[in-house]
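[Discussion] Sanity-checking designs against the backbone

I'm trying to build intuition for which residues belong where. Below is a structure token string of 263 positions. I'd appreciate it if someone posts a full sequence so I can compare it with mine line by line.
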């Protein structure tokens, strides 16, 4: 491995590209520890600071993860979200079993909390209004890949099973429909990219400058009154959003107006 001093690309970017290529080629597999920064610097004949910048770049991209006191490792978990939010309404049995085989969702908090601005706006209430929140963490291969929360009005959920610190054997929306007495009829998803909060960075084990993808999901009843507002945050570099859909065929041309004379 070597760098080209005369190239337009900065040395740390050249090093990052070569390390990335070795990982893609399988020289280092998921979970493998990379050589130390001094060792890589000696290999490329550059200063340690240059290698550190290359490692930092790959960490922001989600390729590497650094464990304090241990070293830098290949981060092999990449979550492909091919269902977005509409998958949570899967009606066929086995849907949750399929997810459970790949992802493990852990309920981490159930209680009352002040509504953050985006949740308050979705419900049409003032910032800080007390709501019921159910927070969760999703892991795969023991790596955190999602932190999220579902919010409900206290007038809907207080005193119901939604306030209990327990997981259900069915989708949350089905539990909410029964507890609240209103059916989910439509929903909207808003996805944005931003920097993580300090808490999100710590939970997801990413650097504070690593971008995250954030979903705001609002579910409505038939009268377009919000029932649930859900949030989900994923590490941007290791998350792929894929939506599969049908493309309608061309419509046949309408018959020409018989009263129209051409010529």
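Best answer:
Here's mine. Compare freely.
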């Amino acid at each position: 491995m070597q760098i080209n001093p005369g190239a337009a690309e900065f040395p740390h970017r050249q090093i990052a590209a070569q390390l990335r290529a070795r990982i893609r080629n399988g020289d280092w597999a998921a979970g493998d520890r990379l050589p130390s920064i001094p060792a890589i610097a000696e290999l490329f004949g550059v200063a340690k600071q240059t290698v550190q910048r290359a490692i930092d770049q790959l960490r922001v991209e989600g390729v590497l993860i650094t464990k304090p006191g241990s070293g830098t490792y290949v981060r092999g978990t990449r979550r492909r979200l091919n269902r977005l939010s509409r998958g949570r309404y899967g009606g066929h049995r086995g849907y949750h079993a399929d997810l459970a085989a790949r992802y493990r969702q852990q309920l981490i908090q159930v209680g009352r909390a002040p509504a953050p601005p985006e949740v308050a706006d979705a419900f049409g209430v003032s910032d800080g209004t007390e709501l019921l929140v159910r927070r969760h963490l999703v892991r795969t291969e023991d790596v955190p890949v999602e932190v999220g929360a579902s919010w409900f009005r206290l007038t809907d959920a207080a005193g119901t099973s939604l306030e209990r610190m327990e997981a259900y054997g069915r989708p949350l929306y089905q539990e909410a429909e029964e507890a609240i007495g209103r059916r989910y009829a439509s929903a909207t998803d808003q996805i944005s990219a931003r920097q993580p909060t300090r808490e999100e960075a710590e939970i997801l084990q990413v650097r504070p400058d690593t971008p995250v993808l954030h979903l705001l999901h609002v579910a409505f009843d038939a009268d377009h009154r919000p029932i649930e507002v859900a949030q989900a945050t994923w590490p941007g570099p290791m998350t792929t959003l894929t939506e599969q859909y049908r493309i309608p065929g061309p419509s046949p041309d309408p018959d020409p107006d018989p009263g129209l004379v051409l010529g």
